[in-house]
Specification:
This protein is an all-alpha fold and 84 residues long. It is built from four helices and no strands. The longest helix is centred in the first third of the chain and has 29 residues. The N and C termini lie far apart (35 Å).
Length: 84
């Protein structure tokens, strides 16, 4: 049972790494610089600290609601690419 659990865990780790690499490619290819920056800051990607929408808005000198709209659009765009 322990062996099966370990194999499953390894498969999950590999699957996660593949998806992360695919996400990076999709972000580079399909998101604008602003969308990519917001997603990176909101979710703490590439070693960045996770920030709230309000913190991102202040950092980028835009409104929190605009951050929300950009984030939502970018996430929908990425989801479409993943779903094929």
């Amino acid at each position: 049972m322990d062996i099966m659990s370990t194999e499953s865990s390894i498969e999950d780790d590999i699957d996660t790494k593949i998806k992360v690499e695919q996400l990076k490619k999709y972000m580079d290819k399909y998101l604008s610089r602003r969308e990519k920056t917001i997603i990176e800051l909101r979710y703490g990607l590439y070693g960045k600290k996770t920030l709230t929408q309000r913190e991102v808005a202040k950092l980028m000198s835009i409104s929190r609601s605009y951050v929300s709209r950009i984030e939502k659009k970018a996430l929908l765009n990425l989801k479409k690419k993943f779903d094929g």
